[in-house]
Write the C-alpha cells for this entry.
Amino acid sequence: MLDKPMISNGDRRRALTLSTVAFTACFAVWTIFSIIGVAIKAELGLNEFEFGLLVATPVLTGSITRLFLGVLTEKYGGRIVFAAQMLLTALATWMLTWATSYAMYLIAALGIGLAGGSFIIGVAYVSRWYTASQQGTALGIFGAGNVGAVVTAFVAPLVMVAYGWHGVAHVWAAALALMAIAFFFLAKDDPQLVARRASGKAAPTLSQQFAPLKNLQVWRFATYYFFVFGGFVAIALWTPHYLVNVYHVDIRTAGMAAAAFGLSASLFRAYGGHLSDRFGARSVMYWSFGFSAILLFMLSYPATDYVIQSKNGPIAFSTRMDFLPFVIMLFMLGFFMSLGKAAVFKHIPVYYPEHVGAVGGLVGMIGGLGGFILPILFGAVLDLTGIYTSSFALLFLLVCVSLTWMHLAIRHMERSAQGAMLDQLPELPEMQGMPATTAANQTHTLEEWTPEDTAFWTTKGSRIARRNLWISIPALLLAFGVWMVWSVVVARLSAIGFTFTPEQLFWLAALPGLSGATFRIFYSFMVPIFGGRLWTTLSTASLLLPAMGIGYAVQNPQTPYLIFLVLALLCGFGGGNFASSMANIAFFYPKAEKGNALALNAGLGNLGVSVMQFLVPIVITSSVFGIMGGEAQTMTKGGQLWMQNAGFVWVPFIILSTVAAWVGMNDIADAKASFKEQAIIFSRKHNWIMCVLYTGTFGSFIGYSAGFPLLAKMMFPEVNSLQLVFLGPLVGALSRAGTGWVADRFGGGRVTFWTFIGMIAAVFGVIFFLGIKDQPGAFTGFFMTFMALFLLTGIGNASTFQMIPAIMAREVPRLMPQLKDGDLRKQIDRESAAIIAFTSAIAAYGAFFIPKAYGSSIAITGGPSAALWGFLGFYILCAVLTWAYYTRRGGLLNTAERGARQTAVQA
C-alpha cells in the first residue's frame, strides 16, 4: 500500500493544481453548447426537443466514457490518459465548425463529450496523492473545476459577439490543446503507479476493477450523484434558454445569470470537501438534499393568479418570481448542490481505495447521464405541460427520492449496528470505516500557539501571524468597500432616472450600517466557534451576493424600491466582517504588538471605504466590462453612466480574496470556544463602557463615511464634492493604521481622552461653517474640519482597541483568581477578542444613526446642525467616561500608562 505521508507537499500541490486547471478547461469545453447552442438552434431552426438533444449529447459521451477512462487511468496513470483525452477533445471541438447538417453536429458533439470524462481521470489521479483524512478537501478543490462552466458563460458570449460561434469553438479547442501539452510535460506519474511499476506488479484486471460494482451501495451513491452533478449540468445547460424565454433577457444577461449559478455550484465544492472531512459526508448530504428540496419547491412553483371569494367580493392576487430573486435562489441552490457533489466523492477513495477508477467512473457516469437525460426531459415535459417551471418540479421529485432512499438506508444500518460495533463507527452510516478526523490532521490548524513566548514568536510565530494579517487586510478592505458602496451609488440614483425621495435615499445610505452592525453582533462570536480561516473564507465569499445584486438592480429605473432595501441590507455582510476579522487577528499577536496589528488590520481595512469612494466614481463613467457588463444608463441631464460597475468591479477581487483566505490562513486550536464561554463578557462592566467609547470613535468614522458624500452634496450643491469625499475615509483609515504604535507606547486611555477633546472642537468647526455656508470659503472650512474629524476618529479607533487587552489583563485576574498561567492567558485573550468584536458590532450602528440623524434633522429643522449638536454632546460624555474610569489618578489604566509614558520620554 502507498505510504502517502512520505509524499512531499510540493508534489501534492503540483498534482492538485495541474489537475484542477485541466479539469476547468475541460469543463469549459464540455458546456460550450450552453452558449453557442442558442446560435446553432436559430441557424438550423431546431425545435425544443432537437435543441435539448444537441445540448445534451456531449454530456452523454462524457458520462459513458467516465467508466472506461477511470479503468484506463487505473492501468496507465493519469498523466498519459488526461493529456490524450484533452488532445482528442480539442480536435473534436475544432471539427465542430466543419459541420453542415444536424446529424454532423450531433457526431461532433459526441466527440466534444470526451471533455466530461476528465473528471474521473482527475479523481483517480488526485486521490492517490492524499491520505483518507485529506481526500475530501483535495477532491473538493479539484471538483471546483466545474467553474469552467462559468468561464464559458462569462467569456463565450463576448467571443461569440465578436467572432461568431465558430470563433468560440476555435479558441476553446486551441486552449485545451495547449493545456494537454502542458499537463503531459509538467505533471508527474502518481506514486502508486510508480511503485507498482518498480515492483513489477501487474495492473488490476477488468474483473478485479469492476467487482465492487455489484454492491448496492455503489448504485445508491450513483443516484445521489445523478441529482447533485447531473442536475447541476442540466441546469447550467438549460438556464440560458429558460431565462431568454421566461424573462425575455438577452443572451448576455442570461449567460451572466447562468454563470452565477455555475459559480456557486463550482467554487463551493472545495468547501463541501472540507465540511465532509470535518463533519462527515452523511451530515453534508442531509444539508445538501434538504435545502435543495426547499429551494427547488420554490423554483418549481409556477406564476399563478388567485381569486378568493370574500364577503366584500373577490380578492385577486398573483404569485410570480421575478428575475433577480430567481437568480439569487439559483445561486443558493448551486451552493448546496456543490456541497453534495463533494460529499459523494468523499466516500469513494475511502470505501474503495483500490478501485477508485472503476467505482468513481460508474458514479461519475451515472451523474453525467443525469446531465444528458435531464435536459431532454426538461424539453419533453415543457412540450407536454407548457409550464417552464416543470423542469424544477422534476428536480424536486428527484431530490425527494434521493433524500428518502438515503435516510432509509441510514436507519437500516443504524438498526444493524449495536453495542461495541456501534461504538467503533466514527459516524453512521456513510463514514463507516473512515478514520476519525482530528485536529492533528488539519494542516491549517495551529496546535501550539504561544505568542508571549519570545523564542516561539521570533522563530515561528511572527511569520505565521504576519501571513494571516496580510491575507486578512485585503479581505477586510473589500468588505468595507461593499458595505459602504451605497454612499456613492445612492448619490447618483436620481441622475439616472430613479425617483426616490431624499428620505428614501438617506434610508438606503443608512440601512447597510444597520444590518452591518447587527451582523457584527453574531459575527463577534463566530471565530472561536468555526475558526478564523473558515469564517474569513465564508464571510468574504458572501460579499458576492450584494456586489452582483447591485450590478443588476441599478440597470433598470423600474427596479422596485423594495429590491434596493434588500440589497442595502445585504451590503451589511461587509460590515459584519470587521468584528470577526478583528477577533481573529487579536488571537495571533502578543500584547506588546497587538495594538499595532489591530490598527493595521482595521486601518487598512477601513481604507476600503476610501478606495470605494475613489474607484466607483471612475468605473461608472466607462464600459469597464464591455458588453458583459450591460448597457449604459442615460442621465437625466445628458451623458451616460454604467452604475452596474459599482457592484461588478468587486467580484473578481472577492473571488481571489476568498481563495487566498482558504489556502493561506490558519486556525488556532486554543482559540476555539463556545458561545456560552464567550458570553461571560456580557457581565463585564468594561465591555459596555468600551462599547460607548468605540461608538464615539469608530461609530463616528463609519457614520461620517456613509453620510458625508450625501451631506456635502446637499449642503454645497454648487461644488463637485463627490470627487473629494474619498479623502475623509482615506485620512481616517491611514491615521488608524499609522498611529497604533502611539497607543502601544503612551497608553490607549490617554490617547483616547485627548482624541475626544479634539473631536469636540472639530464638530464646533463643522457647525460654524455650515452656519455661513453661503459665504466664500465656507466649503473649504467645512471640508477641512471634517478632515480633522476623520483624522481624530482614526487615532481613536486604534487607541480604544489598544485599551481593551490592557483592561482585561487587569480585570480577569481580579475577577477569576483561580486561573493561573496558561489558563489565565487564554481567558484574557478570549475575553479581549470577544469584547473587541462585540464593541465593533455596537459601534457599527453609527453607520445607520449618523446618516439617519442627518436626514431627520434636515426634515425637522431644515438643516443638519441639530444632529451635529447631538454628536458633540455624545463626545463630551465619552471624554468624561474615559477620564473617570481609566486615565484619572486611581483609574484602571493610570499607573500602567504613566509608566509607559515615562519609558517613552526616557527613550
Observations:
- The longest strand covers residues 304-310.
- Confidence is low (pLDDT under 50) at residues 1-5, 417-442, 902-907.
- The two ends are 64 Å apart (CA to CA).
- Residues 397 and 831 are 49 Å apart (CA to CA).
